[in-house]
Design a protein that fits this description.
12 strands, six-stranded parallel beta sheet, 13 helices, single chain, elongated, 348 residues
Length: 348
């Protein structure tokens, strides 16, 4: 067996080259390459073909294998905003890592919310016979499922179908709100405010419900005056300071880290200190904000990397699920200095 005629020629090695080097037919090479284990090929012939493939550096035609098998080693991911958000990259990172662990490559399309681009991206992925498609939005919300997705296996990531007719993986907003509030309860606070967003969303309802559940479990009566609404941005947090101080709260759970950043500015302008005068917990763990505030902000992380991982595992059938199941992923706490040292319960 020799590969002299094919080295340094500049031409790709063909299946015919492999067959000649191994002393077998092209059909035999095809059966070995496509791993047809029940084919009547002797062990010696299989060995010669594999050795020829290795020596010649033959690369099977991926598209041809796809046509034979009916699927490829690609997983598609269609997202409405990748470059413009701090979180989408983590979903992609998690999905890519998990796909790679199982021998798949991730094909990513950013549609910027353009429906024509979305249709073209899904059509292209279907043409390439992807194993399935992850469909993701840049924030947790209800999303209409593009009809073309139903031509293959798919999983919704960070979004869900309003009709509850598709498997989806989303952050556990209720658990996240409960965890954020519990951090303040564990530090001895009893009068705890929540600055919630003015925008209806799963995050708005879920985090508020989690807040109420944590209070109830601790035997703390819910007080509507401690529920403050604000725009979900830095200015919203800044503008909420007067209402927060009027509520006589000693601690506050902010809808997101941007609201907490504005709150920091407003409290500092009034000569108040964190956590001595007001303990603060955020949500999102937006690193560029939370880790660099002074003091650094205790927050609850949105599990974007884990959402990407879970999406791939559900798509590949590695984790069991119902076809219409809403799968939630835990939002973990990230402890920093904005809530101070733990104090005995009931001291504030």
């Amino acid at each position: 067996m020799t590969s002299e005629n094919n080295q340094h020629t500049g031409h790709p090695v063909t299946m015919r080259d492999v067959a000649e080097a191994a002393g077998v037919s092209i059909a035999t090479v095809s059966l070995v390459i496509n791993e047809k284990k029940n084919a009547r090929i002797g062990d010696d012939a299989r060995k010669r073909v594999r050795e020829a493939i290795k020596e010649l550096g033959y690369r099977p035609n991926a598209l041809a294998k796809t046509l034979v098998s009916g699927s490829s080693k690609f997983i598609g991911l269609v997202a409405d905003a990748i470059a413009t958000t701090p979180f989408a990259g983590q979903i992609i990172h998690g999905a890519q890592d998990e796909a790679w662990r199982h021998g798949y490559v991730l094909l990513v399309a950013n549609t910027d919310g353009n429906q024509d681009a979305e249709r073209e991206a899904i059509a292209m992925m279907l043409e390439h016979k992807v194993r399935g498609i992850l469909y993701s939005t840049w924030f947790h919300r209800a999303a209409e499922v593009p009809e073309a997705l139903r031509e293959t296996d798919f999983v919704l990531v960070d979004c869900f179908s309003p009709q509850n007719d598709a498997v989806a993986v989303v952050p556990d907003e209720v658990q996240g709100g409960r965890t954020a509030t519990q951090l303040l309860i564990d530090n001895g606070h009893r009068r705890i405010a929540i600055i919630n967003t003015t925008t209806p969303s799963p995050a708005h309802e879920g985090r508020l419900l989690g807040y109420r559940q944590a209070l109830e479990a601790a035997g703390i009566a819910f007080d509507p005056e401690l529920v403050l609404d604000a725009a979900p941005e830095q200015e919203g947090g800044y503008d909420a300071v007067d209402a927060l101080l009027a509520s006589h709260a000693t601690a506050v759970f902010c809808h997101n880290d941007r609201v907490a950043m504005g709150l920091y500015d407003g409290l500092r302008r009034r000569g108040l200190s964190i956590p001595e005068d007001m303990a603060v917990v955020g949500f999102d763990n937006q690193e560029v904000i939370a880790a660099h505030l002074r003091p650094p902000l205790t927050t609850v992380a949105l599990p974007h990397y884990e959402l990407g991982v879970k999406g791939v595992r559900l798509l590949l059938g590695l984790d069991d699920h119902r076809d219409d199941e809403l799968v939630t992923v835990e939002c973990p706490p990230v402890l920093r200095a904005s809530i101070g040292e733990r104090e005995p319960a009931g001291t504030r």
